Amino acid sequence: MTDTVHDDAFEKADTLFGADELVINMGPQHPSTHGVLRVKLKLDGERVIGSECVIGYLHRGVEKIAENRTYQQFAPYVDRMDYVAAVSNGLGYCEAVEKLLMVEAPPRARVVRTILAELQRIASHLLWLGTHALDIGALTPLFYCMREREEILKIFEKYCGARLTTHAFRIGGLQYEAYDTLEKDVERFCEDFEARVQEYSDLLTGNSIWIGRTRSIGLLNAADCVALGASGPILRAAGVKWDLRKQAPYAAYDQYQFEIPVGSRGDTYDRYMVRLEEMRQSRLICLQAIANIPPGPIMARVGKVLKPPPGEVYHAIEAPKGILGYYIVSDGGTQPYRVRIRPPSFVNLQALDKMIRGHLVTDVVAIIGTLDIVLGEVDR
Amino acid sequence: MTDESKAPQSSEPSQPTAPAAATPAPSAAKPVAPAAAAPAPVLVPLDNELSRRYRERFGAAIQDALEDRKQSILIVDAAQLLEIARYSRDQERFDLLEDFTAVDWPRRERRFDLVAQLYSFAHNTRLRLKAQIAATEEAASLTAVWPTANWYEREIFDLFGIVFRGHPNLKRILLPDEWVGHPLRKDYDILQQDTAWVRENLGIESGQ
Fold first, then answer.
1. B188 domain-assigned
2. Predicted confidence band of residue B207 (pLDDT cuts 50, 70, 90)
3. How far is A62 from chain B (nearest CA, A)?
4. B206 lies in a domain?
5. Please, which residues have CB within 8 angstroms of residue A213's CB and are 6 or more apart in sequence?
6. What pTM, to 2 d.p., does this model score?
7. Of residues A355, A23, A49, A369, the one with CA closest to residue A220
8. CATH at residue A344
């Protein structure tokens, strides 16, 4: 169904004026590309008939660095991939190394991790919503979203002293005990947040300009999502009820009740609705988690020098942007033999070409926004 | 500290195996052999329905079936990786290529491991396919089976220098097109860089 729409538009665009096609560069310095992404657009008039992503401007060789650091030394580096969701990156890495070591974080650590990871999901989605709306021309949501995100960053700051690249977790558990008013702070945030999400929804959900700019834009159906590896909210917006927090529960997610929102059409509007509902669900998880943080130790018994037994492990978590996987190979030494990071943004960005074909140049901005990419993670 | 001091002690009682365990350098070149030699319970042979079906279908092309920390691994013949991939998708319903990467073991005759993480939505299971390949060999591209392999393979080509036969657009993806060298190879030092490229394109002596 969606395919035929795409093909018709493609055919029409190809022959519209019989003029030569035009190739223009979008980026790497362009405010709507959310970083240093360059897209070569092949245009017929204003219609996109082909594209190519040029990435790597932020490549720092994170995987090479990992081979030259100890397991603990590498942990802060993962925060610098998806720097708007550093807590999630750290959670995935710590859990992967724990699997490699065959230890488990204590229950108290797992619950605190879950709380912070869900706050991070909300913060990541808030930044996405604000900038995505800004790209499309709605200035106001950005201010509201930043206001709420600030509250979350304050909680992070109180917990570990950092706001963005938090390095909140340690291999084996937590470095810091939950501070005295953590529950109260999270509760206060959650109380306010319900009405705040409703505010965003009031601003955008029924807004005819918003609908006009997002409905049927950037269609990606479930089969294409799977073929191209697109995960996270993109996959769910295409109607696939799939979330690693349910499929392969990690941290403390198996203890909490929450829904996985899904869309039906797989367009930009559906992805907006899915992420909005995910924020509400994350809020519910936080409320359940703070109601009962079990007492006990926050650190498993791991040595100061980590020497995982030779072997390998793959561990994936549901980061705000999709499947975040770590494949770590140990040769028995203190440094990992190989760390492979499967970043959601990198894989999701690959779907861009399919999504923008047949659309106008202005829609490219909306579609890059809806993919929710972070270039630090794409390029690593 | 305490664990550091404990580690050598714990390996001492097993006198016969101690010399073998004390030479980590050669064991680094072979991922499977040292774990099999040491009495480590982490790596065990995999013998379940799934591995039996693969063995029945592909015979000797399935060189080994292992389980490491409860994760299933099939070591397969690189020459048949494409057929095995297609079978995995169509018959075993591993519809998602979750990740595709490589690992360099320079001391081994066929130095690279190609590592594919497969996921099945229908069964909610994962399977890891590993195939050994030499630097001089070409691997068959998996893009025909899983389109998502496109960028993964470009990244492997970029950082390891493995060529994929049948790839629609095989060129560097993260590094500049003219860059010389493949940084994730073990013989590429972390301080190494393409100084000629850096000088010419950035106008500075060193990128460090």
1. no
2. low
3. 10
4. no
5. A136, A137, A268, A363, A366
6. 0.82
7. A355
8. 1.10.645.10
**Closest residue, chain B, to A338 (C-alpha):** B103
Q: Residues 27 to 46 of B: which have CB under 8 A from any A CB?
A: 27-28, 31, 34-35, 38, 40, 42-43
Q: Name the nearest CA neighbour of A371 among A51, A33, A28, A134.
A: A33
The partner residue sitting opposite B128, judged by closest CB among A248, A314, A346, is A314
Residues A15 and A151 in one domain: no
Q: Is B112 part of any domain?
A: yes
Judged by a CB distance cut-off of 8 A, whether residue A226 touches chain B is yes
Q: What is the pLDDT of residue A19?
A: 60
Q: For residue B28, what pLDDT is reported? A: 40
Residues A46, A113: one domain? no
ipTM: 0.84
- pLDDT, averaged per 10 consecutive residues of chain A (380 residues), comes to 44 54 80 80 86 89 91 91 90 92 91 93 93 88 90 92 89 87 90 90 89 90 92 92 90 90 91 93 92 89 86 92 93 91 92 90 89 88
Strands B138-140 and B125-133: unpaired
Q: Which of A24, A21, A23 is nearest to A44 (CA)?
A: A21
Average pLDDT over residues B46-54: 85
Range of the domain at A225: 62-379
Please give the angle made by the CA atoms of A247, A250 and A255, to the nearest 5 degrees: 85
Identify the pLDDT of residue A277.
93
User: How is residue A200 written in tokens?
Assistant: 């965003």
- Specify whether A240 is located in the same domain as A109: yes
Count of structural domains, chain B: 1
- Average pLDDT for B156-172: 91
A49 and A75 in a single domain? The answer is no
**Which CATH number do you get for residue B158?**
3.30.460.80
Length of chain B: 208
